[in-house]
Amino acid sequence: HPMEPKNESWSFPKDFWWGVAGASYQIEGAAKADGRGPSIWDVLSHRVAGFIHDNTTADISDNNYYMYKQDIARVAALGVKAYSFTLSWSRIMPFGRGPVNEVAIAHYNDIISTCIEYDVIPMVTLFHWDLPLALQDTYGGWLSENIVGDFVAYAKVAYAAFGDRVDHWFTVNEPIVFCNDYPLPAMYFKNFSIPNAHQPFLCGQSVLLSHSQAYQVGKAMMPNATISYKNNGGYKIPQTNSSDDALAVQRAWDFNEGWFSDPIFLTGDYNAAVKAYVSSFLRPFTASEKQTILGSADSYAHDAYTAQFYFAPDSGVQACIDNTTHPLYPTCANTSYTYSAQDGGWLVGAAADPLSPWLHKATDWLPAFLHYLADTWAKDLPIVVSEFGFAEPFESSKTLLQDILYDPIRSSYFHDYMRAMLMAMSEGVNVVGCLAWSLYDNYEWATGFSAKFGMQYVNFTDPALPRYYKASFFEYARAFEIYQEK
Ligand code: GBH
After folding, report:
1. Residue 167 and which of 196, 228, 404, 476 are 20 to 30 A apart at CA?
2. Which among 39, 53, 177 is the best mutation to test ligand 1's pocket, defined by most ligand atoms within 8 Å of the CB?
């Protein structure tokens, strides 16, 4: 990776795009409208007792399905250059495969035309966790390689319908997260008698095959498009300089980012650590599959929110054992890591369970993080920060509108994030765009509506669901007023 200073002016180049992101199930609502088929998230939110922290569903959420025109207008009004959204697979293909729902195609066509009308670049993700229920019921969803053909067929429908106007595509969002979510709650989804400990890796295998084939098909249909997938994970910092802690950090990279990025960016196959774990139960990739997987991305896209400290357990970093009796998947991925914000002097976000606050304002580590991604995987490919954002502490307990709209910690997160990104760019890291999560408060998966990532507040108690800009949105926009080359 050539480390020539490329950007000594500490400004974003003219063609740098900064945007905002949201995802289908989290924002659309209209869960039963216009022929949408159910997804696994309809089951998780409606049927699985205790699964959603505040017992809410996303049946209505931001009602973006009906309010997208004003949503895009509000984003454009602040000068935002890109809008990243997801297609709902089960809206387009209600059964995950077979008939295409033309009403859904017309809907997304209008979202895309509206973006273009407002001079906002549309960026499309094909899959952000809301798997068509029919595919889960029929063959276990991502657990089965049957999904590969169905995903590629769905991708083709999307490319054919939208590829004339959409140049930026992400196949899947955060496979580390949705694959580790297997097994799904056993009472609510058919049990295919696959050991729990194997399920995440069967999913990972299907993802690598699906992504890489969808990439090839996409490039054949849209030679000028940029196609990638979204990685995720915090920067991993060793707690001490011991060799055991260094091993713990490497283990974490290997079983998280490296699980997908090593095959796609480096070798066409799993890294040695993952391979040792999966070889007894996963078939090896064929030579031609490896060839398809290797290089199947035009950029390195990473959802880069935060950083965490990692350390080895007292017993040292042990070999990963295929423990099929483990109640859940064995956490080969994690060895041990601490969420202790004290170690980094970081502010802690309100994002999750107070016992596992994964989100820290660790923007001071971002330059090192971006260098690591560039040196390890991206090499000469551009880097896209495909999500980043912060949940303002105590926001949920505020009652006055003026207080809700004043979010100084999220504002300083965005401000410092921009500066840290510029620092890395000044040192030669080629970041071409960033997408802030999120355009407004939305359905935060298992946390329901209790964690808020929005740069706009949505009053969910008012049926009109009015939107209001928070201070952080102005701060984000201001960074580009100041730092973007004119
Ligand atoms: C993103 O994932 C998602 O793409 C997006 O949909 C989501 O709204 C956004 O983050 C904000 O959360 O609670 O300690 O068990 C970021 C990666 C993976 C981080 C799951 C939180 C749960 C950690 N996320 N993780 S914990």
Report:
1. 476
2. 177
